[in-house]
Amino acid sequence: MTIVEVSNLTKEYLMGETAVAALRNVSASFREGEYVAIMGPSGSGKSTFLNLLGCLDTPTAGQYFLGGQDVSMFTDDELSEIRRQRIGFIFQSFNLIPELSVIENIEVPLFYQGVDESHSQERAIELARAVGLGHRLGHQPTELSGGEQQRVAIARAMANDPLIILADEPTGNLDSKNGEEILALLTRLHQQGKTIITVTHDEEIAGHAERIIRFKDGEILSDRDERSSPQ
Known about the structure:
Blueprint: E1 2-15, E2 18-31, E3 35-39, H1 46-53, E4 61-66, E5 69-70, H2 76-86, E6 87-91, H3 102-112, H4 117-130, H5 146-158, E7 164-168, H6 176-191, E8 196-199, H7 203-206, E9 211-216, E10 219-225
Parallel strand pairs: 3-8, 3-9, 6-7, 7-8
Antiparallel strand pairs: 1-2, 1-4, 4-5, 9-10
Helix pairs in contact: 3-4, 3-5, 4-5, 5-6
């Protein structure tokens, strides 16, 4: 089932009086349960594309359907609601709240959804255990390793049972050992049926995905299903 579809998606930014296109007429669709890597050099449009998919920005032109809803022209408040309900984010810099504990950081999306405290805490504990942090519930981010912080971020991204998980260079701040552990965790989530779209510059990381989309100069250069490609 197709859960994400973009049609002729374009994003322009004004540089003085000149409009610069970061994305040009991009069309693509993503099926439920896919694991997709978005690749391309700096300035290719891949981060702009991820921001649009994450409803962090709106397109200049074109349409974006998320779960059958056309969110292209949504207001800021409507986009915020969509992010809370349907999208899980994993960032390179973790983006945890330093004053909060592991369990409290995981609970943040549930708090904004108005989930009552007992159910919120139960869900957060379940997710912390699922990412191997059941023994670190009361610790703050500064007391965790980089790999542990990213595990918290993944658990937080899963808290609202999102339609899609968007990961922006999820292993970029980690050493190779922790990076492999995070990739294994993402692979496990994919095997459980989660839809994951990740931006990366690393071919080895992209190799964990089943489909690779390459961007160049704001356009899709190639879109390849790795499962059917010759090794």
